[in-house]
Write a structure and sequence with these properties.
Layout: E1 6-7, E2 17-18, E3 23-24, E4 29-30, E5 36-39, H1 47-54, E6 60-63, H2 67-72, E7 84-87, H3 97-103, H4 109-126, H5 128-139, E8 145-148, H6 155-166, H7 171-179, H8 205-208, H9 212-226, H10 229-235, H11 241-251
Parallel strand pairs: 5-8, 6-7, 6-8
Antiparallel strand pairs: 1-2, 2-5, 3-4
Helix pairs in contact: 4-9, 5-11, 6-7, 9-10
Amino acid sequence: MGAGPQPVDLGQAANLRDLGGLPAEGGARRLRRGMVYRAAIPAVDDPAHHRSLADLGLTTVVDLRGAQERELVPAPWLDLRCRDYRFQATAAEAGDLASARARFSFDSPANVRAYMVSLYQGFLETHAASFATIFRSLAEQETPLLYHCTAGKDRTGVATALLLEALGTPRAAILDDYLLTNAFDKTRIRWARKPSPKADPTVWDPMLAAEPAYLETAFAVLDDRYGGIGGYLARRLDIGDAALARVRAHLLE
């Protein structure tokens, strides 16, 4: 069995991969394959793509997007024989980069990068309810499970980092998985294909990329505010030791 997360080739599905194979418990164990997937919003108008997704046998999908994103681009999960499609009706719009690009006047890559860092400083609070849904679903063995946002890199990246941290994946491996997003073609994401409102398209590069400083910012909040993953799970997500033990027992080999 090869190590590391495996991309799933589904044509228009940007940034979809299986977390199986990643190390856990400091490298003593690994995640089982075919249990947890992370992704961008899938193509919504490709029947062949839908059939391929259906072949994953998904039981649960957790949508991390806000209401406006879900209304503009409805997720196609109800067509994929998935039993449960879950989202927070009042999910924060933080992370909706299409809206941010339309609303704010960014005049340099540095300003865009600072905006992205500010998002990551807040994700542990703004999306706590959605992250808790992922952990509770896994504790109840509602797998195979897939979670996604729009680009599958920011909210999805932080959700993945929290899950892997809880499973004892070394942070270097968590960062490596996060940066795999940069190997995918972000222009497949609908909003990224729109012409930039700025003459210089490179202004938006930091918004399309996964950069180490972004995830490191989220880890800093995790450590400084909560004393690590255990404090965050218990105090913010209400995920206790028993639930976490069930997650580990179900996902690790």
